[in-house]
Design brief:
By secondary structure, this protein is mainly α. The chain is built from 7 helices and no strands. The relative contact order is 0.08.
């Protein structure tokens, strides 16, 4: 039932042969992907955007859909470059895809932009450990000049 009875279409009073009216009322519109993307284009960069893409990416990481997660995180970063957690999640997705160098580059960029953000150190250590195990020794961080 409509919250405002004035907007309720009466088929007996107004016969028509067109499409069935939208039952949500005149003020609510259907969700449109193109208009949503256009809105994001106009609002970016914004500290309030990107969290929906980040949540999708985190869910995809948990389901081992690393490629989709990477795309979601890149979109979140593009919308909101101010949130360091998005870059951390992107580095994690790259690490899970065994793209260690790219993940380290993302973490280096994060460290340059936000030196006070220290949550990336655990992931950096795991990536360097995986590189060492894959290459059979040697400190990968020293070779690339990484701390």
């Amino acid at each position: 039932m409509y919250p405002d009875a004035r907007w309720e279409p009466s088929l007996r009073a107004f016969p028509f042969s067109g499409p069935v009216p939208d039952k949500r009322g005149p003020r609510q519109e259907r969700w449109d992907a193109a208009s949503s993307r256009a809105r994001e284009e106009l609002l970016r960069p914004c500290p309030y955007l990107g969290y929906d893409h980040d949540r999708i990416g985190v869910h995809c990481l948990s389901r081992e859909a690393y490629g989709i997660a990477e795309r979601s995180f890149r979109r979140a970063i593009w919308l909101n470059p101010y949130e360091p957690g998005f870059r951390l999640h992107l580095a994690h997705a790259l690490f899970r895809q065994k793209r260690h160098e790219e993940a380290l580059d993302v973490l280096d960029e994060l460290r340059r932009e936000r030196p006070d953000f220290r949550r990336e150190q655990e992931l950096r250590d795991a990536i360097l450990e995986a590189q060492n195990a894959g290459k059979g020794g040697g400190d990968a961080g020293e070779r690339r000049g990484r701390p």
